[in-house]
Amino acid sequence: MKKFIATLKNIWSIEELRSKILFTLLLIFIYRVGTHIVLPGIDPTRLQQLGASASGGILGLIDTFAGGAFSQASIFALGIMPYISASIFMQLMTVLVPQFQKMQKEGESGRKKINQWTRYLTVGVTLVQASAYVAYLRQITSQSQAIIPGYADYFWLSTVIVLTAGTLFVMWLGEKITDKGLGNGTSLIIMVGILARLPQSFLQEFTNKSVRTGQILIFIIELAILFAIIMGCIMLVQGTRKIPVNYAKQIVGNRQFGGARQFLPIKVNSAGVMPIIFAQAVLFLPTLFNFTGTATGQGIASVFTDHSNVWYMVIYAVVVIGFTFLYTALIFNPKQIADNLKQNNGFIPGVKPGQPTADYIGQVMDRITLPGALLLALVGILPGIAQRLGVTHGFSTFFGGTSLLIMVGVILDTLQQIETQLLMRQYDGLMKSGRIQGRQTVTQASY
């Protein structure tokens, strides 16, 4: 405990680190205030009585990322989701389109061009999603008249403008946190939105268990299992397979360069949280059968809206595994890694440079991707398993899935940056043994 207090004092004594923390907290506070400001033309009292919620599929994912602002009809209802969608699209373009690959290799200037295209695309995506959100609000508020009648004629135009401005403002907050604050701004905003639901979900689960005799012990067991799952997710996020790499010695004048032995870290879960997001998006499509009006269509939709359904979990796990292999193949290029090693006089012991090196790295990647995909699929279906075992829906979402993986990854990244600041000034790190390894130490797909 004394060492922990001493570490906090060291963190606070570093002026640069202190200013970054305070700046980050200020912008996060502004974001959280905005999530409680209701859109113009909406009666918040009637909306609250309606109990509008989005608990499944893409709508549930948006509401999770927006910290509940989606279901509250807030000015930040779409949150950072349009920017994430645009970023994912541009990331895929840098892999599939040669022009974008060339732009990415231009260095800082290329990165600025890609960021600018991402912002333009964010505006377009937001306009489409805002129009769809207006239709969604009109559908759920048609009977309760939560939309003020005198404002109905202007509701579509004002809501699209406000939601677009709100998303761009949240995107700006994320960029400012990244530039002048602590950690990745976009990731922190998502994590704060997820954590905002934790106290209410925790209290709901505790209340649900406390009213029954002997259920408090079960609640304590649930917390212990949750802690173990978090530890397992940390291992999944940080797990790497290190391939030894040697660099040939070079003598220039009287000095010797190279000759060092290093490692090429290959992540067990290179795809990150992307397969889970893609799987949720794909499995949302069958729910559209609900609008067919047929008994068969409604039966199909009921399976894919119930995350605790056995068939849903089986299909979901298979889709996650498939997307893990697909996304890993898109973002991981063994040929490029082999060429970079060859250009820098590096080689893997016992493997010839060039194509044999690329084949070897590809084989290693294929071997570790399978257990990584299986573990990722297990993490994805853990909320459904927890719900089947009696955990409330809100609290079960923290037992796995997108929420837990994002929280673990973002917290590790933020702690790594704090530890780097401490070690730069010759303070002790946050851990006695070893250093905290976040996702920034190796290639990682952004979300």
From TrEMBL:
Q: Which Gene3D superfamilies match?
A: SecY subunit domain
What the entry lists under Pfam families is as follows:
SecY (PF00344)
Which GO biological process entries does UniProt record here? intracellular protein transmembrane transport; protein targeting; protein transport by the Sec complex
Q: Which residues form a coiled coil?
A: none
TM spans (from-to): 21-39, 75-97, 117-134, 154-173, 185-203, 215-237, 271-291, 311-332, 368-386, 398-415
Family, as annotated: Belongs to the SecY/SEC61-alpha family.
Q: In its UniProt entry, what is this protein called?
A: Protein translocase subunit SecY
